[in-house]
Amino acid sequence: MELPIWFEVGSFVALGIILLIDLLLVVKRPHEPSMKEAGLWVAFYVALALVFAGAMFYFTGPEYGSQFVAGWVTEYSLSIDNLFVFIIIMARFSVPRKYQQEVLMVGIIIALVLRGIFIALGAVVIEQFSWIFYIFGAFLLWTAWKQATDSGEDEEEGAENPLVARLRRVLPMSEKFDGGKLRTTVNGKKVFTPMLIVFVTIGMTDLLFAVDSIPAIFGLTQSAFIVFTANIFALMGLRQLYFLLGGLMSRLIYLKHALSVILAFIGVKLVLHAMHVNELPFINNGHHIEWAPEIPTFVSLAVIIGTIVVAVVASLLSPAARQSKLDARLEEDAKKSLSEAE
User: Fold this and answer.
1) Tens-place pLDDT, residues 291-329
2) Which positions of the chain have pLDDT values less than 70?
3) What is the secondary structure of 99-134 as a DSSP string?
4) Hey, which of 78, 129, 174, 233 has its CA 20 to 30 A from 310?
5) What membrane topology does this protein have (predicted)?
6) Cα–Cα distance for residue pair 122/224, rounded to 1 Å
7) Does the model's pTM come out above 0.90?
8) Three-class DSSP category at 185
9) DSSP H helical segments within 173-254, as ranges?
10) Residues 62, 297, 51, 12: what is their CA dihedral angle, to the nearest 10 degrees?
11) How many domains does the chain have?
């Protein structure tokens, strides 16, 4: 079944309104949300995605519905992993927690724009060149290997990106933030605040995330509508999730490994699909490779959800995670004691 036009248009209008309201709330009342507030917003966005998935099943049947759920879960998982990088960026530049929501919202908007461009380009390329699946598959397998072997030490050490370092040298920059402003006045001169560097860093990070995530979801569906809506739902509520899971991220020690398994699985799925629709003359004389199996969407969905569940449970039960929880609690108690002393 094809998606009704009114359903596609209505979906984008509704999602656009929700994102606009979310943006206006951040602009009008910048603050650090409580755990309760963040939890309610995350629950709302997850429920909204599940309602949308139900509508997909109702209007288009189980195939497209399953493709959306698989794509959304994959993109959401990658987004959660990306939160760890956001936490590092916020800490590296000492962004006041009151204005971190604004930074995250700008990051989400940049991510939506970049992913929209990649989705449009990807859909056109896939339509014209079936061999692109070989490239997507190889890229995901390489990304999975890199994800599995990356210790994250470079990120934690806080090595500054060359472009960011150059901006610091070229642009007049204040030492301190001035709320959420990009420019401020110091000694009568207009200068940029460190917030500009934060936005540039977030934008560059979003670009890298888009390069990784778009081939992954195109391995699950070739519908540009499903790809884009899955990405929107994965990004919605991300800033609230940042505050909700800030202390939990260090305990999800096996999440990177789970994502590497998922990316490798999708990479294999893409290569098999490329073999099934093969048109390259130097592979099987340009004929389809009939023995190459097509992995059903429900199998992909089961592998993705099963891998994430196993990784989360194993992480939370591991001794390293329990030690991390204890360290976080001791650090929180120390900050509380210092605050009371002051």
Assistant:
1) 777 788 788 888 888 988 898 888 878 776 555 555 555
2) 1-2, 27, 30-31, 81, 151-164, 245-250, 284, 286-288, 320-342
3) GHHHHHHHHHHHHHHHHHHHHHHHHHHHHH-TTHHH
4) 233
5) Multi-pass membrane protein
6) 9
7) no
8) strand
9) 194-218, 224-235, 238-245
10) -100
11) 1
Contact 256, 150 (CB under 8 A): yes
304 closest CA partner among 228, 231, 220: 220
Quote the pLDDT of residue 157. Answer: 47
Q: Which two tokens stand for residue 70?
A: 């698989």
Q: What's the rounded Cα separation, in Å, for the pair 265 and 130?
A: 19
**Domain residue limits at 246:** 5-341
Averaged pLDDT score across all residues of the chain: 78
Give whole-number Cα distances, 47 to 67, 124, 233, 240, 266, in Å: 18, 32, 10, 15, 26
- Residue 262 neighbours by CB distance under 10 Å: 25
Expressed in angstroms, the distance from the first to the final Cα of the chain is 65
Amino acid at 107: G
* Residue range 1-58, pLDDT digits in tens: 567 788 888 888 988 888 888 777 776 776 677 778 888 888 899 999 999 999 888 8
